[in-house]
Amino acid sequence: NAYSPNVLMWDDAKAAYFTAMGWDPTTTKPLEATLDKLNLPTVKHQLYGN
């Protein structure tokens, strides 16, 4: 494994943070449901086209 345990722990923590905040940890974009909850239809349309 080329990564140290600290890097792997950081990756897990970062993914957990994104998930907790309502963002996709893979794409790093806010989820559509999060944008709906925040009443940001223009941002949702720009990111997702809906």
In short:
The chain is mainly alpha-helical. It has one domain. The protein is built from 3 helices and no strands.
Can you tell me the overall shape? elongated
Q: Give the DSSP E fraction (strand runs of 2 or more residues).
A: under 5%
Report low-confidence residues grouped into runs of 5 or more.
none
Q: State the helicity in percent bands.
A: 55-70%
Main sheet specs? none
- Give the radius of gyration: 14 Å
End-to-end separation in angstroms reads 41 Å
Structural class: mainly alpha
In the residues, how many domains can be counted?
A: 1
Query: What is the overall number of helices?
Result: 3
Order of helices and strands: HHH
What's the rounded overall pLDDT mean?
91
Can you describe what's shown?
The protein contains three helices and no strands. The chain is mainly α. The protein has one domain (5-48). The longest helix is centred in the first third of the chain and has 17 residues, at 5-21. The protein is elongated, with a radius of gyration of 14 Å.
